[in-house]
Every structure is written in structure tokens, then in C-alpha cells.
Amino acid sequence: MKNLKIGYGSISKSFSTPQDRRRFGFWASIRGVQYEQADPSKPYDLVVLTQMADLSRWVRYPYKHSKIVFDFVDSYLAVPSSDWRGLFRGIAKYISRQNRYLHLDHRDLLIAMCRRSDAVVCATEEQKEEILKYCPGVFINLDDQSEFSGKKKSNYACGPTFNLFWEGQGGNIGTFNCIRSAIEKIETRHEIAIHMMTDLEYALGLGNIGCRHANKTVKKIFPKTNVYLYQWNPHMISALAAACDMIVIPIPLDNALFRSKSANKLLMSWRMGLPAVVSATPAYVREMYNAGITNMCCSTSDEWVTAICKMIEDKNVRTMSGEKGYAYVEREFSSEQILKKWDEAFDSVLG
To answer: Coil, helix or strand for 175?
Structure first.
């Protein structure tokens, strides 16, 4: 591998986004593999592409000897063809110049990229089943979570104010709309605060259009709740998380793309020893079951109220959830296991 010419179609040109760092970039760093920003006009021995690469050019890539591995993390193929956002996505990527060539149906472009690829790396069982229709070499692999291992929660006692933690992109703060009524009910029984580590300013869409402010978004959702915002910082996330009492991960279950997300965020939480209450997505339900944790995946507002109140009122439940989650991640999702799965994907195309 070290003698191969490798191009990487990254999320960011600086290779600094979480996906760049935690996925292919993590593997290349540990394995000592050099690579460059992938250029569709150049021949490579191996090309690794993310969804943010200009797929409109890579599906036309003329160098047949080059091996392509497509790191296809988000479940866009789970979104119905009739979804209006999907219909607009291809035009938006062309207008924003993310894609050189216009593909009105972005879903069809993703399918074409799967067919053009020698292997696809995805993040869930459901994704793999769908992608196998278009590419025979599909591998499931999640993010490396080692950057969250700086400080593990060990004290599960709580004070008079119960502190909920959440981290994520600024554009995803809106997912809290699906548990707003539950939070309001909980506040009639318990004093709570929500601590969000996120982008204090974030783009409206496609990474380069407009700007929104996280504090304004939060105030629209929670005009009266105590919400504290922190600029996302990889060096401080585990310290802030450990200082909180639990994490909430709300996902709008009526949104096909969100509902199909991987378990990365839940596994990240467990890596830091955090108890978690989450939406009942297929990936979260599966990992909660595998970890031996029950009744912490929620589909309704009443279930959210019950699960969070149970966490607030019972230290033993918090301790069990945090310790079981941590042990599960250490056992099933170590950095070495993540590396080996990347090795398998690359070995399958390079021989």
C-alpha cells in the first residue's frame, strides 16, 4: 500500500472534518499510508471517495485500472425517489459547484457511483442490503472513536439540576423539535439543563450557502429551557460530556434519511461512559440490544418522558447504562477492529 498512488475525495480540502479524521484518514494515519486530494483528471492505483466528492466526474472516471472504494456513509438510498429534498439535491449540488455536471436525480448518481466502484464501505446493515443490488463488494465499518477517550465518566451521582448532553452539527439542532414536548413535560417534574457542543455558526446547506446562528435556532425550539452552547472542540468534548449526567440523541423517525443513520453517535457516547436515551432507529435499537440495555430507545413523546425521568430518578440505572455501554464499545468497536475492517475492504480490491 505504501508504494501505491492514492487519491482521496475528502469532505474538506484540509482533511480535517470528523468524517475525514475518523474514517479513511484514521486508517491511513495509523497504517502510514500517504495520499493526496483526488483529482479526476489523474490516474491512481486507488481512489477513496466520500459523498462530498464530485461524483458527477468520478462516475465518468476514465482510468479503468484504478480501483475505487466509495465511503458511502449516509443512507440516501433509503430516501424515496419522490422526496422533494432528494429531487432538489442534484440541482443544488450543481448550482453550488460541488458537482461539475448536472444530475437531476442525485439518487441515480449515487447508484451509478456504487456500480462504478470496486467496493463500497457503508455504516449499517440496512445500507449494505440496499447497496448490494449495485455493487457486490460492500463492507460495514463505523467511525473510530478514539478521540473521545480522553476522559471517561465514572461518577454517576447528580445534583439538583440534571444535565443533558448533546453534540452534533449545527444543522442538526433542529432534531430537538421531535422531543420538545417531552422536555417540557419533564421540566414540570425536574430541574434540567441541556448542554450542546456544536457549531455556533453553520451554513444553511451544502456547506457554503448562507449562515445561521445556533443560539437563535435553540431559542425557537426551547424559549424557556436552560440551554448552554459550546463551540465544538475535539479536545474538550469528553470533559464536557463527563461533567453531564447523560446524553440524549433525538432523531425524527418520520425522516427516512435521519432514521437510517448509523450508530456512531451512540457508540461515541458510550466510549465516554455516558448513559444514553435515544430515538428508536434501527441502528440504535440493534446496538442497545447487543449491549444489554433496555427501555432506552424511544418512539413516542411519552416514552421519552419515561426513559429520561427514569435516568434522573435512579442512579443505578444511569450507572448500569453507562458502564454496559462502555464495556460493549471496548469489546466490539476497538480501533484495531476498525482498522482491520478497512484492511479487508482495501484487500478485496487490491488483492
So the answer is: helix
Same domain, 186 and 222: yes
Give the CATH number, domain containing residue 173: 3.40.50.2000
Tell me how far apart the alpha carbons of residues 278 and 303 are, in angstroms, rounded to a whole number: 10
Q: Please state the pTM of the whole predicted model.
A: 0.92
Q: Report the pLDDT averaged over residues 4-24.
A: 93
Cell 483529482 maps to which residue?
Answer: 39
117 and 154 share one domain: no
Contact 341, 139 (CB under 8 A): yes
| Number of structural domains in the chain | 2
What span, in angstroms and rounded, lies between the C-alpha atoms of 285 and 121? 22
- Which residues, listed in sequence order, are joined to residue 162 by a DSSP beta bridge? 192
Contacting residues for 22 by C-beta, under 8 A, at least 6 apart:
143, 144, 145, 147
Interior CA angle at 274 toward 297 and 267, to 5°? Answer: 65
DSSP H helical segments within the chain, as ranges? 18-22, 24-31, 55-58, 84-95, 106-116, 125-131, 180-187, 214-221, 237-243, 256-259, 264-271, 282-291, 301-313, 315-332, 335-350
The answer to whether position 192 is within a domain reads yes
CA distance 158 to 104: 52
Q: SS3 sequence, 21-42?
A: HHCHHHHHHHHCCCCEECCCCC
Neighbouring-strand partners of residue 49: 9, 70
Question: Is the torsion defined by CA of 132, 5, 2, 20 positive or negative?
Answer: negative
The grid cell for 280 is 428508536
3-state secondary structure of 242: helix
What does the pLDDT look like over 64-85, one tens digit per residue? 999 999 999 999 998 877 777 7
- Domain extent at residue 344: 6-142+335-350
